[in-house]
Inverse folding.
């Protein structure tokens, strides 16, 4: 079922969902099940499966020369989605990213997803490789999420890459895109950010999932600005509790967000990491209650493979 249909059928009730990473290669599928099982009591209608682009390692040969080798640490998102749907009978939402894929590879992935009966995709540009200072598109791929989005919407109308493919079946993907309540770090200003978000909706995006944030007023302002700009699709807040003191530095640095003074001071007063975790969970519980009052259609958690904090939060909120 499409995410927009799940939201419609909920009749105003806030739904619960979460996102996870495929297991590192060498780990069994049980690692995924261990991350999902504790959260199934909250009846998630869908589970997101993220994707990390390939990276590079350098192998030194006996001659002393270094060889740059591309590698992927994790199994296919398509395979992970299939396993989740088979075991849990819920919708899996794979991420599609620009980095690491050609147009042909993207088309093949979409054909596989359609074949598996997957109705939803989340279209993202993706991050730069760790070794790169900025995002570098893959040769034969895309530089922007809007270009990738156009390929998905083209397939939804039966338009494939090669015109000689006859009787191509139309896909019917419900398409999600990312939103940034505190502005994408590469945008010069918030108005420009909304210009490109509106472009994605005009191209066919059906829902928005936000970057994590810790101030509900920023989510409310983001939704209000969406509506003022003619963006009327559901806006799903993305959430992650602070669970250790290092995140006061790492989260703003990595995700370009602000942590409210009240929260940062509460964390800094903690005498142990256990106390920090409790502060982070309590803050998120109150934040989730406030988001439900604001009418958030779904509370979407970035679990990073650790279900325990999310389970505690969901137990208090749902």
């Amino acid at each position: 079922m499409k995410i927009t249909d799940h939201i419609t059928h909920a009749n105003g009730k806030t739904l619960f969902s979460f996102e996870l990473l495929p297991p590192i290669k060498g780990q069994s599928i049980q690692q995924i099940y261990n991350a999902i099982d504790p959260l199934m009591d909250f009846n998630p209608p869908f589970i997101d499966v993220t994707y990390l682009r390939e990276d590079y390692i350098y192998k030194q040969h006996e001659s002393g020369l270094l060889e740059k080798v591309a590698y992927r640490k994790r199994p296919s998102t398509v395979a992970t989605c299939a396993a989740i749907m088979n075991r849990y009978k819920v919708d899996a939402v794979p991420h599609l990213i620009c980095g690491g894929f050609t147009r042909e590879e993207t088309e093949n992935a979409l054909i596989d997803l359609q074949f598996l009966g997957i109705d939803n995709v989340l279209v993202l540009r993706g991050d730069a490789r760790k070794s790169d200072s900025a995002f570098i598109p893959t040769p034969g791929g895309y530089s922007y999420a809007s270009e990738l989005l156009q390929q998905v919407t083209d397939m939804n109308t039966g338009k494939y890459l090669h015109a000689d493919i006859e009787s191509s079946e139309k896909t019917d993907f419900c398409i999600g895109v990312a939103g940034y309540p505190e502005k994408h770090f590469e945008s010069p200003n918030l108005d420009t950010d909304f210009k490109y978000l509106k472009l994605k909706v005009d191209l066919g995006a059906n829902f928005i999932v936000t970057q994590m944030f810790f101030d509900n007023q920023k989510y409310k302002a983001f939704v209000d600005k969406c509506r003022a700009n003619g963006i009327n699709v559901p806006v799903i807040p993305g959430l992650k509790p602070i669970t250790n003191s290092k995140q006061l530095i790492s989260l703003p640095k990595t995700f370009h967000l602000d942590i409210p003074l009240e929260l940062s001071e509460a964390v800094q007063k903690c005498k142990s990491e256990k106390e920090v975790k409790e502060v982070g969970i309590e803050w998120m519980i109150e934040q989730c209650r406030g988001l439900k009052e604001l009418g958030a259609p779904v509370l979407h958690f970035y679990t990073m493979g650790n279900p325990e904090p999310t389970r505690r939060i969901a137990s208090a909120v749902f």
